Amino acid sequence: MSPGAGVPSSGGALLVVGDVVTDIVARHRGPLASGTDTAASVRTLPGGAGANVACWAAHRGHSEVRLLGRVGTDAAAWHERELTACGVRPRLVVDPVAPTGTVICLVDTGAAAERTFLTDSGAVLRLGPADWSDALLDGVARLHLSGYLLFSEPSRALVAVALAAARARGVPVSLDPASAGFLVRLGVDRFLALVEGIDVLLPSRDEACLLTGLPDPADAAAKLSRHVPLVVAKQGAEGALVARAGAVCARVPAIPTAPVDTTGAGDAFTGAFLAALLAGAGPEEAAGEGCRAGALAVRRVGGRPPTPS
């Protein structure tokens, strides 16, 4: 196990490397009406799994959260303002060619508030090794990587560079797989090879089962923990599973709530979980903080926490 894997930390910054996107959230009720109009409430909001994680970590009280991401010229200033308002220190590389990534989130406003994503990654997948500097790790106690980085060649190369730099400094690294759909395209074996050396894996239930081929999420989390020192599998309304050394060691209950929009709930969990680890919590306690943040997130539209007044 690398130094600090799932072990309380005395402080230092959290560096998140990942996606910054513009979310267009369309909330509708019932099935979409093909070939005609479906009434919906539509909002344009800042998003991106990596950016959301950083904002929730700052919201849950961590004093210094940094974010490296890539955006287009079309929305760079807006995203910088929104991140700063959440307490994040952004380092946004402005792409001269590609636009900012955009995700259309179709949210069914029924009881489950389930969502479907239409994703145009834009500048996100052009984040590469040239955007990295080892100096980004100065003062950093943990590095978190968004799984979306694994879905293009330039950002996969960045992951390799960042992992090597973090290992050289003894900085523990966490990763959220991000998308079961993209994982299918990437391939399980390739994913596991690319994340070799990380300390904490934070998959969803579907991602954990996909990565192991096992139908039971507890079995899946246990199996993944033979590859990664600490696995925290997010289970939505059923809470979270914490696994180490091939066995589930904690089952953390969810906070009961009535969901409005589940967009970003997993990001909220991850951000709060990492903030709690950095504050000195153990993995089970940190997962409880993650569940509390997830419950708050699903009561809001979009993937970000409320900004300070």
From TrEMBL:
A single Pfam family it belongs to is PfkB
Which superkingdom is the protein from?
Answer: Bacteria
Q: What is the lineage of its organism?
A: Bacteria, Bacillati, Actinomycetota, Actinomycetes, Kitasatosporales
Keywords linked to the UniProt accession: Kinase, Transferase
**InterPro entries documented for this protein:** Carboh/pur_kinase_PfkB_CS, PfkB_dom, Ribokinase-like
List the source organism. Streptomyces phyllanthi
Q: Does the keyword Nucleotide-binding apply?
A: no
Task: Answer whether the UniProt record assigns the keyword RNA-binding to this protein.
Answer: no
Gene3D superfamilies attached to this UniProt entry: 3.40.1190.20
Instruction: Identify the PANTHER family for this entry.
Output: PFKB DOMAIN PROTEIN (PTHR10584:SF167), SUGAR KINASE (PTHR10584)
Coiled-coil residues are none
Q: Where is the Carbohydrate kinase PfkB domain?
A: 14-308
Instruction: Provide the protein name.
Output: Sugar kinase
Task: Provide a Gene Ontology MF annotation, just one.
Answer: kinase activity
